[in-house]
Design a protein that fits this description.
The chain has about 220 residues and is α/β, with parallel strands linked by helices. It has a single domain, classed as Rossmann fold (3-Layer(aba) Sandwich), CATH 3.40.50. The protein is about 40% helix and about 20% strand. It has helices at about 10-15, 15-30, 30-50, 65-75, 85-95, 135-145, 160-170, 190-200; strands spanning about 55-60, 80-85, 105, 120-125, 145-155, 200-210, 215-220. The protein has a seven-stranded mixed beta sheet with strand order 3-2-1-4-5-7-6, sandwiched between helices. The chain is globular. The termini are far apart. The structure holds S-adenosylmethionine (SAM).
């Protein structure tokens, strides 16, 4: 049977209280979802390991706040959350209530109101896969402008082996995944590296979410070579 993918426009699709209120349960409550969430947080821990706890970090897009929560739990107290969706921010505000000093901004990652070098670090998880190449480059350039240090971006990278593993996993897993509502753009590792360079930034380190079988890599990027 043909899958009916519902392709939503990425900027407006999340501005919906139902999408925001059900996001965490839909995405991260299954066994594979919980594993994915755990692997994201493990990758965040690895990629931020060398960052002093005093750095000012922007989580963009923060979504429902799970990555900010992870950063705050790791001891990073100067976290700022930004997202285009007020509904997602509302959920994040509730999750992050124990950390009253967190600032929230409803903004577009393509053009933010922040001054040059406002942050020492940026994390951007589960975002690049949603947007096409020209927009990704625009966003990377904007991140390079507002960040003086490390930019950690999750890229949806794939390879034939990872695709094969996913196919086999899907065939045998008891969990039947619903067709995705969203578009997701995959790149090869070489294409992702090329894109970072096109945005005038430098890839310093790449951490794969789960060795070679995962279709996700955390790029540690800098705007100075
Ligand atoms: C898949 S969620 C990821 C959220 C979070 N980073 C995480 O890993 O759980 C994607 C988020 O991107 C936000 N978003 C989409 N387009 C955006 C834009 N142009 N600027 C800022 N946020 C945007 C959506 O509102 C949504 O919260």
């Amino acid at each position: 049977m043909e899958k009916k993918y519902k392709v939503k426009e990425i900027k407006s699709g999340w501005q919906d209280s139902n999408v925001a209120n059900t996001y965490d349960a839909k995405r991260f409550s299954s066994i594979s979802g919980r594993l994915s969430d755990w692997l994201d947080k493990r990758a965040i821990k690895k990629t931020t390991a060398s960052l002093p706890k005093t750095v000012k970090i922007l989580d963009m897009p923060c979504g429902t706040g799970r990555i900010s929560h992870c950063l705050l739990s790791l001891g990073y107290n100067r976290v700022t959350c930004a997202d285009i969706s007020e509904d997602m921010i509302k959920v994040a505000t509730s999750l992050l209530k124990p950390f009253p000093h967190v600032a929230f901004y409803k903004i577009d990652a393509e053009k933010t109101p922040f001054e040059n070098a406002s942050f020492n670090a940026i994390v951007s998880i589960r975002f690049m896969g949603h947007v096409p190449k020209d927009v990704r480059i625009k966003i990377l350039k904007e991140m390079g402008r507002i960040c003086s240090g490390r930019i950690i971006v999750e890229y949806p990278v794939t390879n034939p082996f990872a695709r094969f593993v996913k196919k086999v996993f899907k065939k045998f897993t008891v969990e039947k995944k619903l067709p995705s509502q969203w578009t997701w753009h995959y790149l090869s590792m070489a294409e992702a590296k090329q894109e970072v360079a096109e945005a005038g930034l430098v890839t310093k380190k790449i951490v794969r979410k789960l060795s070679y079988i995962s279709e996700s890599a955390y790029f540690s990027i800098s705007n100075v070579s």
